[in-house]
Every structure is written in structure tokens, then in C-alpha cells.
Specification:
Elements lengths: L1 E6 L2 H16 L3 E6 L10 H6 L7 E2 L7 H19 L3 E5 L3 H12 L4 E4 L11 H11 L3 E4 L2 H9 L6 E3 L3 H10 L4 H8 L7 E5 L3 H4 L2 H13 L5 E5 L2 H10 L6 E4 L4 H10 L2 E4 L2 H9 L3 E4 L7 H5 L3 E3 L20 H14 L1
Parallel strand pairs: 1-2, 1-4, 2-3, 4-5, 5-6, 6-7, 8-9, 8-11, 9-10, 11-12, 12-13
């Protein structure tokens, strides 16, 4: 079996690490393509180095940074790679421009597209990620869903063939890589702890960082928690630039450079609260039994809210006392994905 897997952003590197290791163990010929969507060292190369992921077989250099320009450029580059490699599958993750570009390139070449984290919906089409999710799902052959809710979303859109609930690949990653770190040691490398409970903050979504008023409101909201929490904010380069450009300020937030995946997991493991607009971090907080406040007006991970681990920043409180979320599976998602790939190829 030959697979071309496409990644371009931090959450995808983490998911790819889990499957790449597993594919290698089981004799799968995987060609990993790094689109270059995240090009800062701390947002890209460091993940491959720290997680000991085999280096990408192809690495793209992008000239366009607009949504349309980036998507079109990646599509063109991935098409050339797919024509050369002739894989049995093209595997994509999540909801980035890289995801959509690779899916379109493969679909037009009649190469089956496999979408990990299919069926997620925020029902907000002002988010570029929502457009990417919907279009990718509609050209995919195999749709690997993290939750039953995702299956319902796809059925509502008329997608029923090739749809499978396999659990959450991020749970596999947390179980796999959290065992390799000492949380307290890594936290101390990022921030000097004081007596207050720790809170982890991340902000990177376009809807939050591109508008001065919105970003100001997000920073003010988070800053207010600094009276009771020690807030550490590994800051995305674009977010840092926008804060500076807009002349925004804060008093109680400790801004640090982006940190490796293991350090984020260590911080979440020690934290009492997560403040984030990241889809992945919402779930990672749950995996560490840390409550979360999502800095968006909606979330695709509705089960984290329904089970009391998460709330929107516009909400006055959590829905209930925290309880277990069985939908995310048992940490064996990668095995289920490989079995489905093998079975479909045989058929």
C-alpha cells in the first residue's frame, strides 16, 4: 500500500506523527508532504525534531500567503507530486488550506481521498476552516470521524458511503507522546511558576486576530483571569505581529514563543484552565482533565461542552459537572484507520 500524506500546520504534524510511526511499523509505504503552510521554525520543523518524526519526503516553499493564492499554489505542487508518486490513497488531516488543496488535487486525478477528522462542523461559513472541511468531505472516499456527531453532520449533507467512526487521533497522540516527558520539568523551561493555578492560552484564528476590536476583546477577556491564574501564552507569530500592529496591551499575560508539542502537553497537564480558539487544544485540555474556555462564538467539538469540560467565552458557565466523553475512543484510532485502508484497497 502506498499513501501520500499531506500536512502543513502544527496540529497536522502531531496527527501525522502518530500515523507515520504506525505505518512504518506495518510496512506501509508513506510519502509525507509538508506544504510549507506553517513556515516558522517553532511552528514547523521543531515538531518533527522534538517528536522524532521521519523528515518529510517533500517540502514545499510557498510564495503566496493569501487564502486563495496559498490554496492554488499548494494544489499545483501537490498535483505534480501525486502524478509522480501514483499512490493508492491521498490522506489529509483537519481543515487547513493544505487539506483542501491536496483533496482537490487528488480527487481530480481520481486518487481516493482519505480525510482524518471528517464531518466536523461549526456551522459558521465565515470561517475559512469551515469551507475547507465541507469541500474536503464532499470529495473524500474514506471519511474517518472522531465522533458520532460527525457522522450525523455528514448524513445531513447526503454523505453516507465510506463514513466511519474511528475515534480521535489526537487521543492517540496524547497517550503516545505524554509518556515521553516529565511535565514539571518542561513547564519550568517555559515559565517560572508562582502560587497561582496555571492557565494556558492560545489565540490564532483569523476571526480573532485580523480585527482590532475583536482581538482587543479577546485579550481583555483573558487578561481578567490573570488575577486568579498565572497565564502563559505561547504566541503564534502572526498573532504577536497583530498585537503589535494594533497597539494592544495586557497586564497579566505571560507571552512566550511557540513551544514544542510536548511542552504544550506538559503545560496542559499542570494547568487548571485553558483559554483557546484552537480546535485541537480544546480536546487536548479534556484529555488532561483540564477545563477549557473557547474564545469563539461556536465550537465543532460540541461534546466537550455537553459534558462539562468546555464553554464558549460568551457563556456564563459550564453545562454540567465534568463527565467522561466516550465518543473519542480508546486511543486505538490509528489501528482502525489502517484496517479500513487495507480493507478498502482489497475491495
Amino acid at each position: 500500500m502506498k499513501i501520500v500524506s499531506v500536512v502543513g500546520a502544527r496540529p497536522q504534524f502531531v496527527k501525522a506523527a502518530v500515523l507515520r510511526e504506525f505505518f512504518l511499523e506495518h510496512g506501509v509505504d508513506e510519502i509525507l508532504v509538508h506544504t510549507g503552510q506553517h513556515y516558522d521554525h517553532n511552528m514547523s520543523d521543531v515538531f518533527f525534531e522534538q517528536m522524532n518524526i521521519a523528515a518529510p519526503d517533500y517540502r514545499c516553499v510557498l510564495e503566496n500567503r493569501s487564502h486563495g493564492g496559498m490554496t492554488g499554489e499548494i494544489l499545483h505542487k501537490i498535483e505534480d507530486i501525486l502524478i509522480k508518486e501514483k499512490p493508492d490513497y491521498c490522506l489529509v488531516y483537519g481543515d487547513t488550506n493544505s487539506t483542501l488543496a491536496a483533496a482537490l488535487a487528488a480527487a481530480k486525478l481520481l486518487i481516493p481521498v482519505c480525510h482524518v477528522e471528517a464531518g466536523l462542523r461549526s456551522f459558521n461559513k465565515n470561517m475559512p476552516e469551515e469551507i475547507n472541511r465541507i469541500l474536503t468531505d464532499h470529495v473524500s472516499k474514506l471519511l474517518f470521524c472522531s465522533t458520532p456527531e460527525s457522522l450525523k453532520n455528514l448524513k445531513h449533507e447526503g454523505i453516507t458511503n465510506g463514513v466511519h467512526h474511528v475515534g480521535d487521533i489526537m487521543y492517540d497522540a496524547v497517550l503516545r507522546f505524554s509518556k515521553t516527558v516529565e511535565s514539571q520539568d518542561l513547564v519550568s523551561q517555559v515559565i517560572k511558576r508562582d502560587e497561582r493555578p496555571l492557565a494556558v492560552m492560545t489565540v490564532h484564528r483569523q476571526e480573532n486576530v485580523q480585527d482590532k476590536q475583536r482581538l482587543s476583546e479577546v485579550l481583555d477577556f483573558c487578561d481578567a483571569f490573570g488575577k486568579d491564574f498565572q497565564i502563559v501564552f505561547p504566541c503564534h507569530p502572526n498573532t504577536r505581529n497583530k498585537i503589535k500592529e494594533f497597539g494592544l496591551s495586557y497586564s497579566n499575560i505571560n507571552v512566550v514563543d511557540p513551544v514544542p508539542y510536548q511542552s504544550i502537553q506538559a503545560l496542559l497537564n499542570q494547568a487548571s484552565l485553558a483559554l483557546t480558539d484552537s480546535g485541537g487544544l480544546q480536546k487536548e485540555a479534556y484529555f488532561h482533565q483540564t477545563r477549557c474556555i473557547t474564545l469563539r462564538d461556536e465550537t465543532e467539538w460540541v461534546e466537550t461542552i455537553e459534558n462539562g469540560w468546555n464553554r464558549l467565552w460568551t457563556s456564563s458557565g459550564y453545562a454540567c459537572e465534568p463527565r467522561s466523553i466516550e465518543d473519542y475512543g480508546d486511543g486505538d484510532t490509528r489501528s482502525k484507520i489502517l484496517k479500513l485502508l487495507e480493507r478498502t484497497l482489497e475491495q
